[in-house]
What does this fold into?
Amino acid sequence: MLSYQHIYHAGNFADVQKHALLVALLRHLQIKPGKLNFIDTHSGRGLYDLGSIEAQKTGEASNGIIPLWPRRAGITTPVMRDYLAAVARHNPGDLTVYPGTAKLVDDHLRPADTLTCAEMHPGEFEHLAQALGSRAEIIKADGFEVAGQHLPPATARGAVLIDPSYEIKTEYADVPRQIEKLWRRWPQGVYFLWYPMLPS
It folds into this structure.
């Protein structure tokens, strides 16, 4: 099933939490100068138009990034300050677009760092190819298969970013098993997982 498109949810409260933590992780990993390898297993389209019909249909950003935006100058918590600065990079004026996981990592790449992105949805893949810089490797394939093929990387440091759609309910049980497989291939890696806790 390939029906999920994150544009309907871009910039919502969960994105704010997830991406603020991601930016903090990127900052921490880049304290040391050595090369980093990033793999994003479920990349989406990278950059999301908040004025699009899809985003406007659900309006989920109104409970996430939109109310934060006019208050950003007064927010001094380092994690949130850095996150809002990352969003502002694409919005020099009004808030019009929202960077997803792949774009946030792409924005933070240093010259030696690498980014590999996997996305199976044909439409999302095309958007992703347009959104990312030329140094990112973009693959239309299953994200866990791509990660397995790229691990372990040539250098020991980096992260695997895992954010499935969970549109297939078996993914809740499958994701931990997949992470164990990846960890066995690369125990030194950092695994950044979005795993929503929903009421049964």
Notes: The chain has a mean pLDDT of 94.
